[in-house]
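New to this. Please check this record:
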Amino acid sequence: MNYKNIDLSIWSRIEHFKFYQSATQPWFNICCEVDATALYQFCRQQQVSFFHGYLFLTQQAVNSNQSFQYRIVEQQVRIYPDIAISVAILGDDEMMRFCNLPYQPTYDKFTVAATKTEQLVKSTPFVAANFVGGEMLQNVVHMSVLPWISFTSFSNARNTDQVDSIPKIVFGQCSLKQGKMMMPLSVEVHHGVMDGLHVGRFVETLQALFDTPATSLA
């Protein structure tokens, strides 16, 4: 797996990293809304998947913001290029599955690969032993979608005995507000590698991509 170790001796965040490294719960969560109006209308007009659209644009926003590419592994901070999407989806039995969607540079390639992967994962039984005790895949962001709920807060389940610095991103049910289709967004990240400023920049990048679907999905 391709990555680069950060030289901690000269890293500008080293003291903040040390501070939060000792925290029992070093994560923080920000919930907000993004305007999905332009993206939804474009996907509907072009008859392409809105779901794949916002997954792909999240992948693009993550890879445009370096803080979301940092991972803490074995007391070292790594930076991974080409971060992919690992998203929770419902199987044919209405039970959750974990679906890893490899990084793709264009929407067309992403949606074709995602469709094939989803079909396979949905029909495959979930086995906990496949996900417990093994090495954690680092070059991903963890994502979920709650299309049934327009939430205002969110928290993720996690194993606190294991070091985990992978961002958790969750989208909720769209709601029509003053003529705009607003979508809840939860972003949960490790404070050792980023602050609220960096989450804010990520959201700004994501919103800009949502606002220009004809360009961002090209």
